Amino acid sequence: MKNITLILFFLFGGISSAFAQLIGFEDGVPETFKVSGKGDAKVSSLFYKEGENSLEWDFHPGSTLDVQINPLSLNAKKEQQFGITLWIYNEKPQQDSIRFEFLNKAGEVSYWFSYHLKAAGWRACWISFAYMQGNKKDKNIVGYRLVAPGRKGRVFLDRLIFPEKKMNLRTTPDQQLPANNGLSNRDLWHWCLVWKWEQQSYDIPLATKLTDKRKKELKTIEQRLTDFLEVKKAPQGQINAAYKTFEKAAITPSAAGTGFVGTPIVAPDEQNKKKGEMSWNDIETMLAGFAYDYLCNQNEASKKNYFTVFDYAIDQGFAFGSGMGTNHHYGYQIRKIYTTAWLMRDAIYKHPHRDAYLSTLRFWAALQETRQPCSPTRDELLDSWHTLLMAKFVSAMMFPDAREQEQALSGLSRWLSSSLRYTSGTIGGIKVDGTTFHHGGFYPGYTTGVLATVGEFIAFTNGTSFELTEEARQHIKSAFIAMRNYCNLYEWGIGISGRHPFGGKMGSDDIEAFANIALSGDLSGQGNAFDRNLAADYLRLVHGKDTPNARFFKKEGVKAAQAPQGFFVYNYGSAGIFRRADWMVTLKGYTTDVWGAEIYAKDNRYGRYQSYGSVQIMGKGNPVSRAGSGFVQEGWDWNRLPGTTTIHLPFELLDSPLKGTTMARSKENFSGSTSLDGKNGMFAMKLMERDYENFTPDFVARKSVFCFDNRMVCLGTGITNSNTEYPTETTLFQTKYNGKDSKVGDDGYWLHDGYDNYYHVVDGAVRSQVAEQESRHEKTRAVTKGKFSSAWIAHGKAPKDGTYEYMILIQPSSSDLEELRKTLPYKVLQRDQTAHVVYDKGTGITGYAAFETYQSANDKVVASIPAETMVMVAQESDKSIRLSVCDPNLNIEEKTYTTKEPSRPIRKEICLKGRWTLKSPMENVTLRQQGENTVLTVICQHGQPVEMLMENK
């Protein structure tokens, strides 16, 4: 039973002492509520959204429901933050509205809005003062009133809070309040755009009559979808969960003769689980479980329950035209509603409430968005693809009229194809380098599931008029290839893990999607019946499992691909991936456009250092994995991600200083990777720490990693900060101890991480240990323990211009190790604040990380390189060289959480000694002679290396 409760919210500076009232109408009508004119206000148990009662307002034309409040003084800030929230039950759809008016001391209306009554059932009424109408001149409010429509009737009110002092920022516009949130004018908050999209119309005409070909294609797609979703055996656990949840829901027809009473269903933001309130996931649990029971066991009681739940959900607000106050992230909680609705479609079509069910499914699938092509500035696409693409597909296929089915599926295919364009800036979607963006950054953790759902759509529509365009499939293929490259076998490195440092991997559905896109046609340009390269990747990823697609590809002579080999540049994530044999190295930095880590209130609390120049080797396990390579959370020292240069803090200081989300970006732009001939590469960054609580804002360093064959040369200069309390260090390795000694012979400057990787320190005070470590869980902060082998270079407290140099040998043979311990395979040509330059003897490559303008009298090829540029050069023949130039800076003008502003071209001039020409003309490269030298002008964009072959005249 709820009571009239007064809740004192936190008082911001200057806010008056007015109370926010949470009113549930359990103990009668509050004295502050009065009816003016004909009508009545009374407590009713006919309908309720909380407790067991609501306020029934019986009105006549011209009557009002007047509410007296403690005086409320607003200003511009409070207009945004303050508002009113309640739920209103309307028994019959009407074409009129209730007007809410907020009055000043003189009884004049300062603010008002209209709440439309076009739907029956419970609907939310959430709105801040900022989005109300009125002259708003007098911001001192002493009361408010509800003005009746020009007819006789009644409504029921419940869950009333006024003033709500912290309006939900993702309040969702809907049929009742279409203008209650300005965020609907933005592309970021895609969840709350469902009503805005509902105003769109198809520009694809409805066919008068379908051709036989189209009819056959639709039947083919229907069968493919049915085969995919069909359940062979009743999932008893899900059926039991449905009955258990149904019992808690306590759904009962209302004594009013229409509608229901029962456990309230609200959005998670509003849900009080302690009171037993339910949300979308509970609807999903009941609908899915009852559907399975009816379909597998022919249980008629479950069929009846299925439709009772669906009716109740609509009555509670999960309905066409309803935003339920806020609907953000609902897609993650409703997916099985759609997959089981498809299986129940015959029963749905025969039900008298068919149209209500289908309109609800279409609306919450956001199918209405697909009436037009996808907006090029549409953000957060990964969420939509992952959670709602199947919902959209099912909804499109569930039009009883095949002509409407054809129109909807055509629109969906076009929308998906257009959404798979390479997106600009940092908005969500696929970037030109194959990285996939979510939350304004490169995010593999949100890419899994996306590959699966898009791959499923490709499989369903393959060979029909509804298949994706070839361009769209090429773009999604680039995302598949990128994930193949940055995963080993299924998992990615901690540096690119977002807020899940030890979690996330490719799932079986993502792997199956490799086969689906391979079978959609040869995207390699070789003219085969299917893409044999993707098929080979698929066979590698299924890892020997016997699947129908694996059998088919093997029959066609396809052999499993080897693990990716080479160096892969992903500067939309300020990252590089270095691979040979079965090992993988993830290199990671951050810039003004690329955040370093995503830290939430209950996720990744200690992940600050993920992008401080991390160099993580994953090369052990069957299959290769993080844990198999020595990376586990229990006992992990969050200060010591390999490769990073960090200030070693106690966990309470390393914990994010912000209660909510931290996504720190650098103030530097030089961080990222480049490659030469796709085989070898390098990484460089200007490291700087931000000015946050418990950070050290003058902490800077210049770091580089040069990657050749199975060798990495790691350099650091200018390591400086003023933190006198805690030491600065560069971590060589931290791995779960497996019994192997970290020392190599008697030389304290050769170390072994226990996983067949060797480290030789040339410059730096080496420290190593094998120790039982106590740490904290990244979500719960609970104590964790584990035994680790670790090594690091100690720079001391408050270092000034600290340096380091070390080499890593990745899984060398015993003979290689013996040889390389005698003679270093590289030469450092320069290592200072201006540049890091390394020559590798084995490959003949020279790598340049020019932090400032580099000039050299002794260099045989390069005379000068502009600041913040990476160059790699190798001799191809006596008179030719292979050269790559890269500025990893995305050069995006707008610096914000997410922006559609594009990566802008950057002009670089490199001066080469001698007279050189290009072997083949290039649009983004021009040459001019300057005396005996050649000035090479290169246009860099998207952080991508520009590679060329040059000949010496």
TrEMBL record:
Ca(2+) binds at residues 26, 158. Residues 204-546 form the Lyase catalytic domain. Keywords: Calcium, Lyase, Metal-binding, Signal. Residues 21-178 form the Lyase N-terminal domain. InterPro entries: Chondroitin_ABC_lyase (IPR039174), Chondroitin_lyas (IPR008929), Chondroitinase_ABC_I (IPR024200), Gal_mutarotase_sf_dom (IPR011013), Galactose-bd-like_sf (IPR008979), GH-type_carb-bd (IPR014718), Lyase_8-like_C (IPR011071), Lyase_8_C (IPR004103). Residues 1-20 form the signal peptide. It comes from the Bacteria. Residues 577-809 form the Polysaccharide lyase family 8 central domain. The active site is at residues 329, 439, 446. CDD domains: GAG_Lyase. It is an enzyme of class 4 (lyase). GO terms for cellular component: extracellular region; periplasmic space. Its cofactor is Ca(2+). Residues 827-889 form the Polysaccharide lyase family 8 C-terminal domain. One of its GO terms (molecular function) is metal ion binding. GO terms for biological process: carbohydrate metabolic process; glycosaminoglycan catabolic process. Its EC number is 4.2.2.20. Monomer. Belongs to the polysaccharide lyase 8 family. This is Polysaccharide lyase family 8, C-terminal beta-sandwich domain./Lyase, catalytic./Polysaccharide lyase family 8, super-sandwich domain./Lyase, N terminal.
